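User: I'm curious whether this sequence folds into something compact or stays loose and floppy. Could you predict its structure so I can see for myself?
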Amino acid sequence: MFVTARSSRVAVAAAFALLAAAGCTSDDDKPDAGLIDVTTMRGAFLQAAEIGPTWTAPETSADPQQLVSFCGGTTAAPALPPGAETVSSSFADEGETGAQTLEQLALVYSDEKGAKAGQSLLRAVADGCAPTVSVPAAVTSDKSEPAYAETVEVRDLDEGGWSGFVLIRHKSYEKTHPGTADTAVAVVTSRNVVLVDTYAIYQLDKSDPAAGFEADWKKLVGSVVQRVG
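Assistant: Here's the prediction. I'll summarize afterward.
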């Protein structure tokens, strides 16, 4: 089990039993090099108890046909690439001074060609993101959000034989309403599957990025891909 950065104290305690166990499997236990099915991906997803004792499934799960925004700000989420069967799960950890969320979504195609095409569509969206966006304060009937600036960085990513990219978003609210949001959207492909793994941590009354954020999202992604192989 490992525990990601707890939003109320922003500290990391990681006893990485999942990865240790994955590294000790015999050749007979490893999945073959053929196509990956939906059942395999569903079984590879982390469950709330594996992430940490305070994580739970939200009352309303994320729409399995809806991706998160890549570019931040008020930019709409990219369209789901066509031709894949989807499987997803989402969890949250809400504290007094912030929250964390994890959304795991897999696009399972019938062949490798489809997965590569799907990832290419998503990479094109990522490459079109503006590096910095500024959003004025917004007040609507159902929410009130202070003004903020958000940066977006796109990096190549290779994790356990899965390759693709990750978007790193950092949102910082105006000084009169201090708060931050750090989001990693990892999009990696192996064989016939595109995995979209999104980890976010929100902090109130803070202006610095969340401690341990970089290590946490990498561990979350790494746990899933090592289970699949």
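Summary: Residues 2-228 form a domain with the Protein Transport Mog1p; Chain A fold (CATH 3.40.1000.70). Residues 7-32 have pLDDT under 50 and may be disordered.
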